[in-house]
């Protein structure tokens, strides 16, 4: 019935800061950017490895969403990478605080977490 996830929507508290993070730090490609004056809101469509996957929104004074400790709802976004260590080092060199690399006890794969500017947990998980 379902083919795949079409996109993920993220609402940020500081549009320019988050746009910089997702484009410059994460390296996602801008596909389209619009300002919706009636909503005082930006919408930025981003591609991950050439595939449209993320919508970044700005709204005036969005309420904070608890993330830690673990709260009900979406836990985190995970991105598949070829080499967790190399990606973690690249992020660290760009000023991103990356947790120590761990091993998934069930798959034996390496992974780690970091956060976007609003504290949204992001994961990199090795192929």
The CATH architecture of the largest domain can be named as: Roll
Low-confidence stretches: none
Mean pLDDT: 93
Widest beta sheet: strand line-up: 1-4-3-2
CATH class of the largest domain: Alpha Beta
Number of strands: 8
**What gross morphology would you assign?**
globular
The fold-level CATH name of the largest domain is 2,3-Dihydroxybiphenyl 1,2-Dioxygenase, domain 1
Strand proportion, as a percent range, falls in 35-45%
Helix content: 10-25%
Largest sheet properties: 4 strands, mixed
Q: What distance separates the N and C termini? A: 26 Å
Secondary structure category: alpha/beta
Domain module count: 2
CATH superfamily of the largest domain: 2,3-Dihydroxybiphenyl 1,2-Dioxygenase, domain 1
Name the helix and strand elements from N-terminus to C-terminus, one letter apiece.
Answer: EHEEEEHEEE
How many helices? The count is: 2
Radius of gyration: 15 Å
Description of the molecule:
The chain is an alpha/beta fold and 127 residues long. It has two domains: 1-61, 2,3-Dihydroxybiphenyl 1,2-Dioxygenase, domain 1 (Roll), CATH 3.10.180.10; 75-127, 2,3-Dihydroxybiphenyl 1,2-Dioxygenase, domain 1. 17% of the residues lie in helices and 38% in strands. It contains two helices and eight strands. It has helices at 15-25, 84-93; strands spanning 8-12, 29-36, 41-48, 51-58, 77-81, 102-103, 110-115, 121-126. The strands form two sheets. It has a four-stranded mixed β-sheet with strand order 1-4-3-2, covered by helices on one side. A four-stranded mixed β-sheet has the order 5-8-7-6. Strand 2 and strand 3 form a beta hairpin. The two termini are 26 Å apart.
